[in-house]
């Protein structure tokens, strides 16, 4: 796909940044009770050569630290210093939630349901509004990094809308083990990008409040491949060769347990399983009962519940039902 090439100064958060310049900005719209400003760092790196602007973000949910680690490594390794164009990195968008190790904003709202926001709305809504109006407009491509919520461990995957061939092409280049067709969620960052015509790759990998170096490497390799495709990858790096078949999952569903108790998972993430295959057992705490959880169909395991105890009805495995 072809993205714009920008020669002019980048206007963002009241700053004007020329080609070849680097700048750390602070996206500051709120304060703690102590009147202490909450600063959200924004790292801008511009090559001397004109090119597209790529916005790389994480931490929309404050407890999804594996996504933050991915963007941190982009910065610490210098992957964000492009051969051409501009790379903007925001490792922790929801600093409030990060401080409290919480998914949510202090007003109890999920930031990823508040986009595009409102200037007179709740704190989360105001934050989303300023982000959409002061940062997002400069982006030609967005890459956003998440994890599963709670104890749910997501496979390394890219989520895209069904009808966008450009994004589908970029997802194949990113080359996560799986690409999922997922409907856009109302009020989400991804929905706002789609409405504004900005392509976005949403990566899921790992679970909240946990770091996973293998998942981080998967994502970093994907970022390098996309930047290389855009001719933006710093010459100090090489784009890793594709590692996966990159399975496109067009339909999926959750396998739920019919029993409560201790959950003993017996398969791994990314595995392909067969209908009727034993996936886990759920046992009572007294050693008298144990119930087998079987695969409902042939498919790939794209999420596993890592909770030690579950209630009947809890979702414990996310499995593909159709692939392309």
UniProtKB/TrEMBL annotation:
UniProt KW keywords: Hydrolase
Enzyme class: hydrolase
EC number(s) given by UniProt: 3.5.1.-
Protein name: N-alpha-acetyl-L-2,4-diaminobutyric acid deacetylase
Species, as recorded: Mesonia oceanica
Lineage start: Bacteria, Pseudomonadati, Bacteroidota, Flavobacteriia, Flavobacteriales
């Amino acid at each position: 796909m072809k993205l714009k090439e920008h020669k002019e100064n980048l206007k963002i958060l009241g700053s004007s940044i020329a080609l070849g310049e680097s700048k750390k900005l602070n996206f500051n719209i709120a304060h703690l009770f102590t009147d202490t400003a909450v600063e959200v760092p924004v790292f801008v790196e511009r090559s001397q050569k004109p090119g597209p602007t790529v916005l790389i973000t994480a931490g929309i949910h404050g407890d999804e630290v594996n996504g933050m680690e991915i963007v941190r490594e982009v910065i610490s390794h210098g992957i964000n210093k492009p051969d051409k164009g501009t790379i903007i990195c925001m490792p922790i968008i929801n600093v409030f939630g990060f401080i409290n190790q919480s998914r949510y904003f202090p007003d109890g709202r999920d930031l990823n349901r508040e986009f595009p926001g409102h200037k007179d709305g709740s704190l989360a809504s105001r934050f989303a509004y300023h982000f959409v109006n002061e940062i997002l407009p400069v982006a030609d491509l967005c890459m956003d990094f998440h994890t599963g919520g709670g104890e749910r461990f997501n496979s390394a995957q890219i989520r895209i809308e069904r009808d966008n061939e450009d994004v589908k092409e970029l997802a194949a280049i990113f080359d996560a083990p799986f690409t999922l067709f997922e409907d856009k969620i109302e009020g989400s960052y991804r929905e706002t990008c789609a409405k504004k015509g900005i392509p976005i790759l949403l990566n899921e990998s790992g679970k909240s409040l946990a770091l996973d170096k293998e998942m981080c490497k998967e994502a970093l390799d994907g970022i390098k491949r996309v930047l290389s495709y855009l001719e933006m990858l710093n010459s100090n790096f090489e784009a890793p060769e594709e590692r996966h078949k990159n399975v496109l999952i067009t339909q999926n569903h959750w396998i739920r347990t019919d029993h409560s108790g201790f959950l003993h998972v017996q398969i791994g993430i990314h595995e392909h399983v067969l209908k009727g295959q034993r996936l886990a057992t759920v046992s009572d705490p007294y050693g008298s009962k144990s119930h087998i959880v079987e695969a409902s169909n042939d498919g790939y395991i794209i999420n596993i519940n890592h909770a030690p105890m579950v209630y009947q009805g809890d979702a414990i495995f996310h499995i593909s039902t159709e692939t392309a």
